[in-house]
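Supplementary notes for students who missed Thursday's class. We covered one full example, reproduced here. Read the sequence, then the structure, then the short commentary at the end.
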Amino acid sequence: MNRKPRLFALISAAALALAACGSTDEGAAASPDGDVRFDVSTVKKVDEIAALLPPEIAEAGVLKIASATDYAPAEFRAEDGQTPVGYDIELIKAIGNVLGVKAEVTHAQFDSIIPAVGTKFDASISSFTITDERIKVVNMIEYIEVGSAYAVQKGNPKGFDPANPCGKRIAVQTGTYQDEALEKLSAEKCSSSPIEIVKYDAQSEATTNLVGGALDSFYADSQVVGYAITLTDNQLEQVGEVEDSAPQGIIVSQQNPELTKALAAALQHLMDDGTWTKILEAWGSADAALPKATVRSAQ
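Structure (token representation):
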């Protein structure tokens, strides 16, 4: 990958937050706080792609999707506390439309999702960074490339240096790439003064506690950092550069190659016709879109 993701342009993101609107029909995720940014009802069924679906899913008319909806702006919940919104949510609903089924998104704790795909859920979209460890147990379909970044309080009053995080109190969302990366960094570089890694089930908890001064920093996807800055009215800022850019993937069971093929074909269609770029553009992050729905699997 030679393209680097970038943070949301704050002015654009703020403007979008004020002006965002969208259809509340069945094809779009209804949101009382206006966080529908792309009207997925404009995405229509493609018969030849829909024919790739496993018969049991096609007959049920529902694609059961798991998502840890506490990781704005990719997947989070509207002000009603129930409605899933975000660019990942809009993408999976658009994929469902291409396949002629309803993508039914259910909140699940991030670190519980992979074991549940193939049993409780058909698939998952939840900002999963593609790693060798993950593709040993699930198929992953590339759709976006995202980096990691540190957030601090505005003005960096605690003097946090991302080049020297040893001994610092840094928050992550449990089970994320950043969780694993900090554990590894602390073990390899900070043996005399380990990083105090504070793990939260929800990214929103990390944001709240950083604003309140209980943390030195939080470490998250660069898009998440940019969105947190906007949501907190610039009480936070990014420190250091975006690092470790890597693709993220939709998760499917390795025991379901038919569904993997169908989802990849639907995603590729949305990449080719520009829909995926338009969804990300509406969230201020078109540069993160990938052009090819590559399936990554150990099989």
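Commentary. The longest helix spans residues 257-272. The radius of gyration is 19 Å. If anything here is unclear, bring it to office hours.
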